[in-house]
Amino acid sequence: MTDNEHRLHLLEQMLRIRRFEERCAQLYQAEKIRGFLHLYIGEEAVATGVMEVLEPDDAIVATYREHGHALARGLDPGLIMAEMFGKVEGCSRGRGGSMHLFDASTRFYGGNAIVGGGLPLAVGLALADKLSHRPRVTAVFFGEGAVAEGEFHESMNLAALWDLPVLFCCENNLYAMGTALERSESQTQLTLKAASYEMPAWEVDGMDVEAVAEAARKAAESVRAGGGPHFLELRTYRFRAHSMFDPELYRARDEVEEWKHRDPIEQFRERLIGEGVLDDEAWGEIEDRVHEEVDRAVALADAGTWEPVESLTRFVYSEVAP
Amino acid sequence: MIDFVLPSLGADMDEAMLVAWLVEPGDHVEYGQIIAEVETDKGIIEIECWHDGVIEELLRRPGPEKLSVGTPLARISVDEMEVVPRPSEPRLPSAPPEQRPPRFPTQPPPPIRHLALTLGVDIEKITGTGANGFVTREDVRRAARKSAPRVEERPLGKGRAKASPLARARADELGVDLESVTASRADGMIVEADVESVGAAVTVPEDKVAAMRKAITRSMSRSKREIPHYYLATRIDMDRALTWLEDVNSELPITKRVLPTVLLLKATARAVRDVPGLNGHWLDEGFRPSEPVHLGVAISLREGGLVAPAIHDADTLELGELMEHLRDLVTRARSWRLRGSEMSDPTITVTNLGDRGVDTAFPVIIPPQVAMVGFGKIVEEVVAVEGKPAVHSVVHATLAADHRVTDGHTGGLFLTALDRLLQQPEGL
Amino acid sequence: MSDVIAPPETITYREAIREAMSEAMRRDDRVFLMGEDVGRYGGCYAVSKGMLEEFGPERVRDTPLSESAFVGAGIGAALGGMRPIVEVMTVNFSLLALDQVVNTAAVYQHMSGGQFNVPVVIRMATGAGRQLAAQHSHSLEGWYAHVPGLRVLAPGTIEDARGMLAPALDDPDPVIIFEHVGLYNLQGELPEVDGSVDITTAQIRRVGQDISVVTYGGSLPKAIDAARELDELGISAEVLDLRVLRPLDKEAILRTVSSTHRVVIVDEGWKTGGISAEIAAIIAEEAVWELDAPIERVCTAEVPIPYARHMEQAALPQVPTIVAAARRLVGR
């Protein structure tokens, strides 16, 4: 892949996430998708950029706002949509839903919906790699809200203390549900928290997919080379509400509009057009391709089947000895 | 043309008020455009339209009325046929607004009806306090509180006899009324054993002793009237058996020791298996032999009288088990707690009058049985051993048998078998 | 061939666990031990004493006081192919890691639709009786037994202390082992040196006819002593050791009740919402017609555990209270 082809690929990946999630919102309102639905719209550059630099046997631990990560990691959109429909064909057999997407084949360890809960898990995955002398990276995503959790500090300390290959990716979208960063942290400069654990840390423009990919590449290389854990603060913004049922009482409409001017997809598209890498026709092709893919995902989910209730109690304990 | 309906924005959203329209009829709308604001329990939320098209008609005006999820709000003529499946609920009628019934709603929405159903309240009987007489959740809950009995009005464990579940099940089985059972425990709880005692007593009339006398009279008169008895007797050397038993008992704790009587019972039960014609019943059609040996044991009662309940399958029991059964039977017989089946089941009976100092017993057969075995006490007697006198322990065994079924020859075989078995006690 | 017969080996409960862990680590490179003060200090209850010398600091790994992180790391390492033994010093501190146990270990298998299993073993001390007061005397194994996806073990004998670890490590799912602090010094003989035991069934420790005492863990010796006293009063008590608190061996419970028709449940947890309540409910649901007396429970008084010795002892199940409960049921 040439550099420009690669850039177009990044654009398409972000658009895939955007269109997929817009369809999710629509299907939610039509009651095809239920439970909680947290959309990643506005933050696509983060997952796209980081995922780009990871190897197939690296591990990913994500949060409940993880459709983007799953898509960027290469999970089949149809299996993700089927999961949200609650169908047995879903990537978690309909047992997880929107918040719990899992895939063993890409080492995608969820879909963790307790804020901060995925961090210790990532430390453990990295510990296993270190004890087994495998040059792998475990990338863990979490919001800035998790920084207030004890599990964040315990995990940062443990990873640094034991020199474990963890890439901590803090997606700072400024709001923990409805609580603004300055209303939840005495120290709002998050990289300082990493510094206190002697961990290399960078602030990155999370609305610029190339900046994210660049920073992630540096950090992941260092982690893989035995440089211990690294911390990235990816500054981003979610354009939509926290979840579907959220009147957004906690932030000003102007602020949202302001950030929308920095839409990661729009910005990058304009940059590519300006540099002559992309034209309207190519853009149209990307749009069509993504649209078709999302249609196919919905069709697959629609055609999916419901797991028989008789198997309700399966997957509580392992069925096959390893 | 499609209906734009009030969308469901969360699993906990059932209804909302329409606050404002951001579009007018004739406006062109785009995929993802926000076209209205609704107020939910959480606050005002913007709702978007997922179609490209033109607003044809607004079906609802902003106002305080609570609209259920799925209520059509507008009609949109779409540019192209987009597929937005909405399968779950039937569509609401889309009559023009002016033709709608003037009062809304005539029926509370499903969530309210569901709540009423859950709480067991008849929703038709509730007067609504909401706008337009609308029945609210609180109305339903209030009605539910009114109709439910207060906890303190419920009885507290005084309603019925205090019996254990096992006792209750056993009483049911025996047809015993728990109210008639007296608890043997100080705390008044009726347990299984209490029910058993009444269960047995049910077969014995009020004046137990007199009734028993009558029963014995009836049974024994019938026996002497109907059964042509013959009697055979023999003297059995008990030296070997007693020596063996002493050995066995020396190994056992006192409570588990076996009495010589048990040897005699076991030998009898085994001997009738070898000699046909003694174990069974004389019925209208004649003798019906019995495969199992249910050995009746005559037990005299303190109040006078006698019962002869059965030890079931006595020929198959180990000596220790037989001992336990005997002890249990004597205990229960003397407290009038025998079960009906034990009374009617024996296929042959043994009477042992040894402990009353009797040398030899001459039993009267209990109809419809056809034989009875009697033992006297075990005594030391002079016997000839290899031509010389010796002192041995002996017991006098008697057989009373029904001549309609067997002859003296059979009886003789039985006594011989009995003797043989007692000479090999280890085989018992 | 030697004609010398070795005397049966006497061993403590503590040593039995240590032997089991050392053996597992010698046999399988994936096994390692991690927890607070398991290495240099030798374990708060000296269970891992000497193991650091044999296995080194990578495999006998001291952790900071970060229960949530190191329990979660154990879960993550298990997902990453290792077979970690995580020692949480006591059940009291495990509350700081409850999120990882309940929200991660127990549910991963299910919410991933069967893709990920978590073969971690988490050991912890539990129970009262040593005047450690309210914050160090909890018996919360019933909480863990509430959660589907976990296997919860409570070794009450030396044999189980020695034998339960190997099958727990072989179990593809998370296993929690509760070691009662009062048992660490228990001394006894091992019937078989390397005998691993089953971790699915309850066991009858003493046969009896008149009443069943259902118990586990630290209350087991008390129940057996009570049964001996009852014997002298002419009451024959059966003692059922649950061993596995989840999934419960329902059949064993129903069988003993069906044979004696009377039951006393002894549990060092509190009654309300506890494991004793669950057992009573099982009996009520499935064997109520076998009962010839109400169910009795001898549990810890509904108070935080007090410090003063006489008060603490009064709060806990004791031999006389078990005997008294049994006598009430038999009516003697």
Structure description:
The complex is a heterotrimer of chains A (322), B (428) and C (332). Chain A is built from twelve helices and eight strands. Chain A has 322 residues and is an alpha/beta fold. In chain A, strands 2-1-3-4-8-7 form a six-stranded parallel beta sheet, sandwiched between helices. In chain A, strands 5-6 form a two-stranded antiparallel ribbon. The longest helix of chain A has 27 residues, at 3-29. The mean pLDDT of chain A is 95. In chain B, strands 9, 12, 15, 16, 17, 18 and 19 form a seven-stranded mixed beta sheet that branches. Chain B has a four-stranded antiparallel beta sheet with strand order 1-8-6-3, with no helix packed on it. The longest helix of chain B is centred in the middle third of the chain and has 19 residues, at 208-226. In chain B, strand 13 and strand 14 form a beta hairpin. Helices cover 29% and strands 24% of the residues of chain B. Chain B has helices at residues 110-119, 137-147, 165-174, 192-201, 208-226, 239-250, 260-274, 319-334, 340-344, 408-423, and strands at 2-5, 15-21, 28-29, 33-40, 43-49, 53-58, 66-68, 72-78, 229-237, 280-283, 286-289, 295-297, 299-300, 306-307, 310-311, 348-352, 371-375, 379-385, 388-402. Chain B has 428 residues and is an alpha+beta fold. The model of chain B is unreliable at 81-105 (pLDDT under 50). The N and C termini of chain B lie far apart (98 Å). In chain B, helix 3 (165-174) runs parallel beside helix 4 and helix 7 (260-274) packs across helix 10 (408-423). In chain C, helix 12 links the parallel strand 13 and strand 14. In chain C, helix 3 (67-79) runs parallel beside helix 5 (98-105), helix 10 crosses helix 14 (319-330) and helix 11 (250-260) packs across helix 12. Chain C has helices at 13-27, 51-59, 67-79, 91-94, 98-105, 108-111, 141-145, 158-163, 165-170, 220-232, 250-260, 275-286, 309-315, 319-330, and strands spanning 10-12, 31-35, 60-62, 83-90, 121-126, 151-153, 175-180, 187-189, 203-206, 211-215, 237-241, 244-246, 263-270, 296-300. Chain C starts with 9 loop residues before the first strand and ends with a helix. The relative contact order of chain C is 0.12. Helices cover 38% and strands 20% of the residues of chain C. Classes of the chains: A alpha/beta (322), B alpha+beta (428), C alpha/beta (332). Chains in contact: A-B, A-C, B-C. At the A-C interface, strand 2, helix 5 and helix 6 of A face helix 3, helix 5 and helix 6 of C.
